[in-house]
Amino acid sequence: MKENMMMKSGSKDYRYVFVCGMHRSGTSLLGRNIARLEDCTGLENTGEFEDEGQFVQDVYPVDAEYGGMSRFGFDPRAHRTETSPLLTPENVRKLQASWHAYWDNSKTIFVEKTPANLLMTRFLQAAFPNSYFIVIRRHPLPVSMAIRKWKRCLTPLYRAFEHWLHCHNLFEKDKKYLNHVYELTYEDYIQNPAKYHEEIAAFIGTRVPEPPKEDTFRIVLQWRNPSGLRVPERAMETTSAVYSRKYFDRWSYFLTRSPFGGYYRYIARKYEPEFAKYGYSLTKGFDPTEKVQCEISRGSNAVGALYCIGADVHAAMWRGSIRCKHWLRLTSKAILPAFIVNAIRQARRKRIYAKQERIVPN
Predict the structure, then answer these.
(1) How confident is the model at residue 3, as a pLDDT?
(2) Which structural domain, as residue segments, surrounds residue 277?
(3) 276 and 354 together in one domain
(4) N or C, which terminus of the chain has less Cβ within 10 Å?
(5) Same domain, 74 and 177
(6) Residue numbers in the chain where pLDDT is lower than 50
(7) pLDDT tens profile 227-277
(8) Is 260 part of a structural domain of the chain?
(9) Is 343 a member of any domain?
């Protein structure tokens, strides 16, 4: 089997499709749909979150080791090219074998999705012959605000904006070295997914299959969903703009009614020109009043810089608090007798179940 994998990896008849984009940009949905095209296969049943390729290999560190989803791009080591010292023949063989173990090797087009691929395109092109890169870009507000909801993400919003810009700027410089690149936006994709499925299929040399009359389902593990996501095996998945609307509404509140409105208006003014280069805006379309628009355009940069320092201090304190709680929890488990630790665990579960019973209607 391993020999057959290596033959596939070195054959010009086989193609490798890497789905790239920032976390929360729609890479998972897009990657699964591409894997449903004719003669395509994606990583399945890996036992890892979202079946991401980064978790089933040991050639390079996962993005969490470089600061996580809102900071990994700031670490220079996360940006890998054809000059990476990790790109040895042995490592290439290991990486190929790791992923072929979870692909359907009867197919000829192999799809791998990991958001941090955005900074690894040149590395992956060198490691895999016949590489194709599909890059999806989403408005920075939903991307940055969705990530910050996660308990372990303690990055100030302005730093999340900078991270979005930094990663996309690196990709812009890298893509001139790539042989096959297809780019789309999340906003366009959800409006007309069928159009983009057709275009992507043509790009990678295949076609869209007929919708199945019957289908089976599987479970994909997710970060914030312990029970996982139930997805069809063959039918295309869809989504809606409503998932972005709630973040736009929240941003509108931040600009107009938040007690920290000065901070949000400052970062809107600061990053607006950079996001405009990608076709996005932090000030247009959010219905701010004329007074707020004036404050955005005329605010003090010195005061705004102080706001950012305050956001950094708050994030550092929050981070320290969580780490302290984690240390106390580990220490208590090591010191307390097992029966007391079990009693605490059972009491916590009872509180959770009781809370669920109160919020679930009869």
Answers:
(1) 40
(2) 242-299
(3) no
(4) C
(5) yes
(6) 1-10, 150-151, 318-319, 322-323, 326-327, 352-353, 355-362
(7) 889 999 999 998 888 888 999 999 999 988 888 888 888 999 999 999 999
(8) yes
(9) yes
Question: Is 237 part of any domain?
Answer: no
Is 65 found in the same domain as 91?
yes
State the total domains in the chain: 3
C-alpha distances in angstroms, 2 versus 16, 25, 102, 127, 274?
18, 34, 12, 17, 47
* Tokens standing for residue 107: 């197919």
Residue that is last in its domain, among 299, 315, 339:
299
Claim to verify: residue 192 and residue 48 sit in the same structural domain: yes
Cα separations in angstroms, 265 against 102, 215, 282: 47, 49, 9
pTM: 0.81
